[in-house]
Design a protein that fits this description.
Strand order of the largest sheet: 3-2-1-27
Shape: globular
Number of helices: 2
Helix content: under 10%
Mean pLDDT: 93
Largest sheet: 4 strands, antiparallel
Oligomer: single chain
Number of strands: 27
Low-confidence stretches: 1-21
Strand content: over 45%
């Protein structure tokens, strides 16, 4: 072999042997109990997932990419459902639900064939519903085959869903209604007329349904409804101004106190006779974008999206409104939270 050839081969070995791999090193998790879902920017495919340990305040960023050979999860994470061992991540603009192993955040496959999915709700061990922005229907998922089995026509944009026994209650944003569905037959039972844009739904300890309506774009006064399981309106509370746009309704672990975003964070007891005038957590010039409550500590987790371009800020508060901890999210637009045991 010529000296020049040997020198060339040595250079190639040195170059490729020392070249740093582009694949991130897989991360190991240490009792992480909080999942932070960063939406990312529409069309940019920069959605990410963070993990956070509420006990020692450790944080790990972009865990899906790190544990899936550098593959990003997709374009706009909208929501997530946490099962026993599996997480179902709804990736809106990628038109899919990504299934992940909650032990190591490795992908277990995807459910495709969706239009613009919003929320995932398991019906049984073999079936789930997925609401959708543009499909004008609810997708019925075969969980064993990971495919869309059929659809339930809804004639509009469907959002959050809750299940009580064999009935599912779905917020219909387009038609300003609460839809009741028989989950065994996959048929619509009834529709309850509401004010504009019902965006979030929860169930209290008495099995009554609470629905928060934003009122649209300065169109009508927003409302918080209490509704029976039969779909009848028990009562509603009206907000003071059409410029208000409440959303992100959640409920505590006892099923007794509601929380929602309306600039700041407000609370509402299920026995209250009027809406609160003062927030538990003031807005203070922030863009408070998402809200959740830890099932064990009952602490409130609030995310500030800042300007939708830079990484957001996560705040932990006691229910009294006292700040416990704040830190930067590992991605853009922290849009929702989930919790692990």
């Amino acid at each position: 072999m010529k000296p020049v050839t040997r020198l060339y081969l040595a250079f190639l070995l040195l170059f490729f042997g020392c070249k740093k791999s582009e694949d991130p090193i897989p991360q190991v998790f240490f009792n992480m109990d909080v999942i932070i879902l960063n939406e990312g920017n529409f069309g940019q495919g920069n959605a990410t997932i963070d993990l956070y340990n509420s006990r020692d305040k450790r944080q790990q960023s972009d865990v899906f990419r790190s544990n899936n050979q550098g593959r990003p999860i997709g374009d706009v994470i909208h929501s997530m459902y946490v099962g026993q061992d599996t997480g179902f991540v709804v990736v809106n603009n990628s038109q899919k639900v990504e299934l992940i192993d909650l032990n190591d955040f490795k992908s277990l496959g995807t459910i495709n064939g969706l239009n613009s999915p919003r929320y995932f709700l398991p019906i049984s061990s073999t079936k789930a519903y997925v609401s959708d922005l543009y499909a004008k229907s609810i997708h019925v998922i075969d969980l064993q085959r990971k495919v869309v089995n059929k659809t339930i026509q809804a004639n509009g944009w469907t959002e959050q869903m809750v299940k009580i026994e064999d009935t599912v209650y779905i917020a219909d944003m387009s038609n300003n209604e609460l839809i009741r569905i028989n989950s065994k037959l996959d048929t619509i039972l009834s529709r309850s007329a509401l004010i504009r844009q019902p965006n979030s739904v929860v169930v209290d300890k008495n099995n009554t349904i609470w629905v928060l309506c934003s009122g649209g774009f300065d169109e009508v006064l927003p409302r918080l409804y209490q509704i029976s399981t039969s779909g009848n309106v028990i009562q509603f509370f009206e907000f003071q101004s059409v410029s208000m746009s409440p959303g992100n309704l959640i409920i505590d672990g006892e099923g007794e106190k509601l929380y929602y975003l309306n600039g700041g964070v407000y609370s509402h007891s299920i026995t209250a006779t009027q809406l609160a005038n003062d927030p538990v957590i003031p807005q203070d010039g922030r863009l408070l974008y998402s809200l959740a409550i830890h099932p064990s500590s009952e602490e409130l987790y609030v995310a500030d999206a800042i300007d939708y371009q830079q990484n957001g800020v996560i705040y932990r508060y006691l229910k009294s409104g006292e700040l416990v901890h704040q830190f930067r999210s590992g991605g853009v637009i922290p849009g929702s939270f989930q919790f692990l045991p």
